[in-house]
Specification:
By secondary structure, the chain is mainly alpha-helical. It has 10 helices and 5 strands. The longest helix is centred in the middle third of the chain and has 41 residues.
């Protein structure tokens, strides 16, 4: 692991091939750091991960790390070259979710995915890219990753609200499962301000704060019976957040008007 970190710290290779079963560190966790831009110079470097003992649990961890492809040992030269050809000719688009950044997996819809800079392909076809050109490509793709990661905030809020509203309407009072959903929703809204600050979605912050305020009010309801008016606020606030991320609402002025119209806190 130390040698891999050293190579990525000093240079910018076009391909990384390594075993996930290293003695001096967890390569799987390191792939996640690479993909999130916390290690090396290129978060989009093509990665082939080798597995000595392919248990279902280990394979699942590797797939969820952000690697491009997995090969179980022993490997043949032909097999390795086939995988490299795939990375050159038909590399998968990158997708972003709450816990994942990397090439699209089987369960992902890559239709709206991000085209990752592929210096391996450039070298293979004889395209000469300057350091500045590569850096510009990486910066542009990382900006797209950042936008996609912000979109995830809206999707997470929508998912929790979709679960919460019918649960609250049926139960009429708080139970452990509802409390957990509310706490998870608060985790998202509490962390949204820092993530949205300085981005083109900064205006969504007020709506996220309103959702957090409503969730807090429901949690603090006397006798565990929340005010039905608070429950009714969750859905329109969530819908307004989706509208912001879709581009239908683009300014803080519009957001403030919507919050006032909905009657949120």
């Amino acid at each position: 692991m130390a040698s891999i970190k050293d190579v990525l710290a000093k240079g910018s290779p076009d391909l990384l091939i390594a075993s996930c079963e290293l003695k001096d560190g967890d390569f799987i966790d390191y792939i996640k750091e690479i993909r999130r831009g916390n290690a090396g110079h290129n978060p989009f470097i093509p990665i082939i991960t080798l597995i000595e003992t392919p248990t279902p649990e280990l394979v699942a961890r590797v797939v969820e790390s952000g690697t491009d492809t997995v090969i179980a040992k022993p490997i043949s030269t032909a097999q390795l070259l086939d995988r490299i050809d795939d990375l050159i000719e038909s590399r998968k688009k990158f997708v972003v979710s709450e816990a994942y950044v990397g090439p699209a997996r089987r369960k992902d819809n890559a239709e709206g995915g991000i085209e990752a800079p592929n210096t391996l392909r450039a070298k293979a076809i004889g395209e000469k890219l300057s350091f500045a050109e590569v850096e510009a490509m990486i910066s542009q793709a990382m900006a797209q990753i950042q936008i996609a990661s912000l979109d995830v905030i809206g999707a997470q809020i929508a998912a929790h609200v979709t679960n919460l509203v019918p649960m609250l309407e049926r139960a009429g009072r708080l139970d452990p499962s509802i409390r957990q959903e509310l706490l998870s929703l608060l985790d998202i809204t509490d962390g949204s301000s820092d993530k949205l600050s300085g981005s083109k979605f900064e205006h969504v912050t007020e709506l996220c704060e309103s959702v957090g305020n409503v969730a807090s009010a429901i949690l603090a309801a006397r006798g565990g019976a929340p005010d039905p008016r608070d429950i009714q606020l969750l859905k329109p606030l969530s819908q307004a957040i989706q509208a912001c991320f879709s581009g239908a609402i683009t300014s803080a002025v519009q957001v403030s008007a919507i919050v006032q119209q909905i009657g949120a806190r």
